[in-house]
Each structure stands twice: as structure tokens, then as C-alpha cells.
Design goal:
globular; single chain; alpha/beta; 226 residues; 24% helix; 6-stranded mixed beta sheet
């Protein structure tokens, strides 16, 4: 089944967001919305005759400022987060194995914790919206008091890498300008967590990467609040 997909980014934070829609019913969802792109989302939705049903978050501990509250006010779309997020403002919580329906389009929820306890991957056919569970060629920096490296390692190796090699990955951030990847590319080319790495090697590479990002001042963490 074909569906509409549009990737919108923010140049300042290098954050990425997505509009997806069922081409038949015109029902749509936004994944990891950005406050800086709210007007753009609304314009695309209006121009394409879409009905915005859901505002999906891959995790609530983000380094970008979410646009879900403003979009909720303007469209009435349901805010959706994993049950571990613990926020009272969402209209719907999800857990591993849940399905979200956009007309005839099915969005599968995969709980992929590690970057945060509430991190999820949304699967739409052969497309995986992985949030900060995995970056193209790398991983998101650990957040003190929030991230669990061992859990992240298991989520990537056991869940994400269990998908077919030709599945396409859409991250929540563009690392060094790369905005899209695939299972095969990450399994063989990711510098921090390739398919054949062991946990000790993963931790060494991840720690070096974390320090590089912090020194560059390119990653800051903000909590999504209600």
C-alpha cells in the first residue's frame, strides 16, 4: 500500500520530523513534530487535503522543542506517547505491540528503550521511524539519569537489527547531514554499534562519541512538558 511521506527538518537543531498519511482516506500523523515547523505542517495538511489524526512522539526527552501542543490546539489531533513517558497531557499512551490506524495504513509500535525509557520505533510497512534509538552511522548521546546504555544496546541489536536489511530508517536527527539510512547500512557501517560489535566495544565508542558531541555543543537536552 502506498502512502504519503514528507520529512521536515530544523537546520539549527538538526532535528527531523515526518508527516505520514494514508493516500486513500487522507488521514495523517506527524512524528516528532517541531515547533519551528508548525506552520509548514499545517500548510502541507491543508494543501493535500489531509486530516491530522495523531501527533506521535518517539520519546519525550528531546533536544528539540516539540510542536505537539500547538498542533493539538489547532487541529484536535491526539497526542501519543509511550506509557513510560508519565505525562498527563497525552490523549493516548501506547506500549510494545500496539497498532495505530490511519485509515487503511497501520503503524506498529515497537518499544525500543535505552536513549530514554519511553523510546519507541514506529514501523510503517518497510519504514522504521527510530527517533533517537539510532542515528545514521552513530547513536544519540547518552542523557545522564535518563539513558541506559545496556538497554539501548539490546534494543538496537535485538529489535531494530532483527528487521530485514532493506528496511529504511528515518531518525529524529541528521548526523553529519545524513537524513536517512537502512538496516543494512547501519549493521555494517555504524561506527558505534555495528551488527558484530560486543557491548564493551560499544561502550568505548559511545563514550568517545558522547564527549565529541558535548565538546562541540551540538546536543542539548530539554524535557517535553505539559
Amino acid at each position: 500500500m502506498s502512502f504519503f511521506l514528507s520529512q521536515l527538518g530544523d537546520d539549527k537543531s538538526h532535528s527531523l520530523s515526518y508527516i505520514i498519511a494514508d493516500n486513500f482516506t487522507r488521514k495523517a500523523a506527524i512524528i516528532d513534530s517541531l515547533q519551528s515547523r508548525v506552520d509548514d505542517y499545517l500548510n502541507i495538511i491543508r494543501e493535500r487535503g489531509l486530516s491530522l489524526e495523531y501527533l506521535l512522539e518517539t520519546h519525550v526527552h528531546e533536544d528539540h522543542v516539540s510542536g505537539i501542543h500547538e498542533l493539538r490546539e489547532q487541529t484536535g489531533a491526539r497526542r501519543v506517547m509511550h506509557e513510560n513517558a508519565g505525562l498527563h497531557c497525552c490523549e493516548q499512551t501506547v506500549r510494545d505491540g500496539d497498532e495505530i490506524y490511519l485509515g487503511e495504513l497501520v503503524i506498529n509500535v515497537l518499544h525500543t528503550p535505552g536513549h530514554s525509557p519511553c523510546s519507541v520505533t514506529y514501523q510503517v510497512q518497510d519504514r522504521l521511524f527510530v527517533g533517537d534509538a539510532l542515528w545514521p552511522g552513530n547513536i544519540a548521546p547518552f542523557v545522564k539519569g535518563v539513558s541506559n546504555p545496556k538497554t539501548l544496546f539490546n534494543s538496537v541489536k535485538d529489535i531494530i537489527y532483527s528487521m530485514p536489511d532493506d528496511y529504511i530508517l528515518y531518525p529524529a536527527h541528521a548526523w553529519l547531514g545524513q537524513r536517512i539510512s537502512s538496516i543494512a547500512q547501519e549493521k555494517y557501517c555504524n561506527r558505534v554499534i555495528p551488527e558484530n560489535c560486543e557491548y564493551d566495544g560499544f561502550i568505548r565508542e559511545a563514550s568517545e562519541h558522547n564527549q565529541t558531541i558535548k565538546n562541540a555543543g551540538k546536543y542539548r537536552s530539554l524535557n517535553l512538558t505539559c
